[in-house]
Design brief:
The chain is 37% helix and 24% strand. It contains twelve helices and eleven strands. The strands form two sheets. Strands 1, 2, 3, 4, 5, 6 and 7 form a seven-stranded antiparallel sheet that branches. Helix 4 crosses helix 8 and helix 6 crosses helix 8. It starts with a helix and ends in a 6-residue tail after the last strand.
Length: 334
Amino acid sequence: MAEIDDIEKITPEEMEALAEVLHDSATPASPIASEDDVVLKYDLVGASGSPRHSMPVLELVHDRFAQGIKEQLTRATRVEGQVETLSPVHGKAAEIYSGLENPCTVIAVEAIGLETTGMLVMDPLLMMHLLDLCIGGTGANMTALKTLELRGFSKTEERLAEHLIRFFGRALSKAWSEIADIRIEVMRLESNPRHAIILNPNDAVVTFPLKMDWKDVKGEVKLVLPLSCLRPIESRLASTVVGIKKELSSPWQEALFQHIEETPVEVVVELGRAELTLRQLLALQAGELVRLDKEPGGPLELSVEGTPKYLAKPVIHHGNMAVEILDVLTQPDE
C-alpha cells in the first residue's frame, strides 16, 4: 500500500488539459479540401487513355510496318528472319531514355509528312549484325559491340546505317500510305546514351516496338514519335479503321498482291544519249569516243518497263556494277 501511495496522482484540472491536447492532435491542422477545392492537372497531349481508343488503327498500321520491314531486310541481307509486333505503347520520352544502355543505338530521324523529329532505337548488337549482313558478311558478334562502346560509329558504319534505315523508311511509308504520305530521313546516329536526348524527356510519345530474330541474333527495335504529331491526322486514323481491317482480312487479296510483287519487271539505267548520222555510225572504230548528253558524275535515269521512275548514281556493290537510288521521279499525272 505504501508503494501505491507514493505514485504521483493527476489532478482533475491536469486530466482536462491532457484531454484537450489529445483532441487537438487528432484534428488536422488544416481542414480537408472539399471536392470543389481540388485542382488536378490534365495533360491533353500526354493523356494515355484517349489515343488508344481514338486511334485503334495504329496497331493495324504497325502490323503492316513489321511485315514491310521483314520483306525489305530479307532482300537486303539475303537472310530471312522473324519480326514480331508488340502493341504500340503510350508514355513519356524519359521512359525510353531510362532504358538505354552503353553502348546504345539511337537514330534521330525527321518524319517528313508528320512534320516532327522522332527516333529509331535499336538493340546495338542487332544493328551491327544487320550492317555486316548487308555488306555480305556472316553477321556481328560481341566483339563488334565492344568496339562500338569504345569508339562509337565509324564514318563507314554511319553511311551503312543510313542505308539500312532506308529500308525501315520504305516499310514505314508503305504502312502509312493510306493514312498520310510519310517518309523518314536520318539526321544523326548516337551510341552514347548521354548524347541520345533527341526528344524532350517530358514529351508524350507513342512507341512502336518490334522484336526481331535475324540469323540467331535477337533484339528489339522501337520507333518513337511524339504523340502530338498524330493529332492533325487523328480523324483519318479513325475513319480508315474499317477499310484497313477489310483489306488485311481478305486472303485472296493478299495472295494476289504477293503474286504481283513477284512478277519480274525490266529495269534499265540510261547512261546517256547521243545522236549520230548514219555516216558517223558506220565510221565508228574501236577506241573512238561517243559523247553523251549527261554530265560526268550527274544522276542517271532509271526506268521501269520503259517508264522513268528514279534518279540513281553508279556504285560498286560486292564487286559488281550497281546503282544507288537518289530520288523518286514524280510523274506528270501525280
